[in-house]
Design a protein that fits this description.
With 471 residues, the chain is mainly alpha-helical. It has 12 helices and 6 strands. Helix 2 runs antiparallel to helix 7, helix 6 runs antiparallel to helix 10 and helix 8 (309-333) runs parallel beside helix 11.
């Protein structure tokens, strides 16, 4: 869970207040120093990111979590860490190339030497882009957090300890699997080098490379975690639209139980005290601004609209606009790292199957190597899905919003203020599209996966043909 705090005091809330929901693009947000109180899965991913230089934050223990903010000391630590790892990786790559194809355990031919060099360099570039841009990303995260929090306050979001534990368990399982794979791969090549009495050379040459792999994996999980948090808020806004439609007797969708917003969960009370309120995820307000409540949870855990449907549509449009701004800010913050990650995934999906196919063709009966390469292939495919699927789900929620507003427009009476509110909302949806397009080079959606797999197949055929010619 996360508690977004500012240096202001919390004004009294009024359910019927029509004050617009503040967004992360408000002038006051840009100039304020902000901090968060995090706990659960959010604290878990941020602490791991901090250790690997991807979240230069300071953590101060609080009664309900950890207070986090940008730390200059951690920024210096991040830069030094990645610089040392990059230096050792490049040094090891050059040393391994100088050994020659006769003595190298990973570069047994000219083609495999070229492919392995690309493999190492793409990991170096990805890790460097992730760590050197981390301070800017974390500052942006603290700024857009309030817009995410305003959604939780307005729609009566709730917190589930069970879901929080499941999130932590999933993150831990992914890290354990990746750690076992890295250790197994490292030990395999060290044992192969032992036959030529080069095991310690291989260890020193590749230790930096394998540590940088952790940086790449954590960076991808960090982005996925952030994108899923925003997707959860778009889903909550859509559920609120469905509830609003029910109040005006427009059955657009079946109302399901509200999902708990654990990812990037924002707690509703100030640090020093908690309100006895039926809204369990709230936010500390900006000075002079208020988060307008649209839905409250009743004693029986049912959601209840506390404002007229017309006002609810207006406020939901404001929340939707704020979340669109958050998407654009995330897109800008992760633009370069995402492009490098996509190129990295493409190259690894070419390199790893190449080694797997060549091992089958050569038929040296190294079953352990075949299993390792198969697991790496599966890992790279999962990496691509980890980056693309949260974005796909977010885009799907955006399309769901358009469908709900369209059905409301065609089903509501033509009199009163509600049709005009829906008309404004529909125009807003036309102007504010939901998509992740890092640096404008591509859109992170499922068609991208099909394009990548097609490119992988083409380049694999070319590489294998070159290998046959080289032989």
């Amino acid at each position: 869970m996360t508690n977004v705090s500012t240096n202001g005091t919390e004004p009294d809330k009024a359910d019927g207040d029509a004050t617009p929901v503040p967004t992360d693009l408000d002038p006051g947000v840009e100039g304020r120093v902000m901090h968060c109180v995090v706990g659960g899965a959010h604290a878990f991913i941020l602490k791991i990111s901090s250790f690997f230089g991807l979240a230069p934050l300071r953590f101060e223990s609080k009664s309900n979590g950890f207070s986090v903010g940008i730390s200059n000391a951690m920024c210096i630590y991040s830069y030094i860490l990645v610089t040392i790892l990059v230096f050792f990786t490049i040094f090891g790559l050059v040393a391994e190339i100088n050994v020659g194809i006769e003595m190298s355990v990973r570069m047994s031919s000219r083609m495999s030497q070229f492919v392995s060099t690309c493999d190492v360099l793409v990991v170096v570039i990805t890790a460097g882009a992730g760590v050197y841009g981390a301070p800017k990303r974390m500052r942006n995260m603290l700024k857009f957090m309030e817009s995410v929090a305003s959604v939780d306050n307005s729609i009566g979001a709730h917190y589930s300890l069970v879901t929080e534990r499941k999130l932590c368990a999933i993150l831990l399982a992914i890290l354990i699997f990746f750690s076992v794979l890295i250790a197994d791969d490292f030990c395999f090549y060290a044992l192969q080098a032992k036959k030529m009495d080069r095991q310690w050379d291989v260890v020193t040459n590749y230790i930096g490379f394998y540590l940088l792999w952790y940086v790449v994996m954590i960076l991808e999980l960090q982005f996925a975690f952030t994108a899923l948090s925003v997707r959860a808020r778009f889903q909550a806004v859509n559920d609120a639209l469905v509830l609003t439609a029910r109040h005006i007797s427009v059955p657009v969708e079946k109302i399901n139980d509200p999902a708990s917003l654990n990812i990037f969960a924002i707690r509703a009370a100030p640090e020093s005290r908690r309100r006895a309120n039926n809204v369990t995820l709230l936010v500390d307000s900006m000075p002079g601004k208020e988060h307008a409540v649209i839905i409250r949870n009743t004693v029986t855990k049912e959601q209840k609209l506390v404002v007229p449907p017309c006002e609810a549509i207006r406020r939901l449009a404001c929340l939707h606009s704020a979340l669109c701004n958050v998407v654009h800010r995330i897109d800008n913050s992760y633009g370069l790292p995402l492009i490098v990650i996509l190129i990295s995934t493409l190259l690894h999906l070419i390199v790893t199957p190449y080694f797997l196919i060549m091992e089958i063709i050569v038929s040296t009966h190294r079953i352990h190597f075949l299993v390792l390469q198969f697991l790496w292939c599966a890992t790279h495919i999962i990496r691509m899905f980890v980056v693309v699927e949260p974005c796909h789900y977010t885009i799907t929620e955006g399309k769901r919003t358009e469908e709900l507003v369209c059905r409301l427009m065609t089903s509501t009476p033509s009199t009163g203020m509600l049709p005009s509110r829906l008309e404004l909302f529909s125009r807003q949806l036309m102007l504010q599209s939901i998509s992740y397009s890092p640096m404008g080079m591509c859109t992170l959606d499922r068609p991208l996966i099909a394009s990548v797999l097609g490119a992988v197949t083409t380049y694999l055929v070319i590489l294998i043909q070159f290998q046959r010619y080289d032989s």
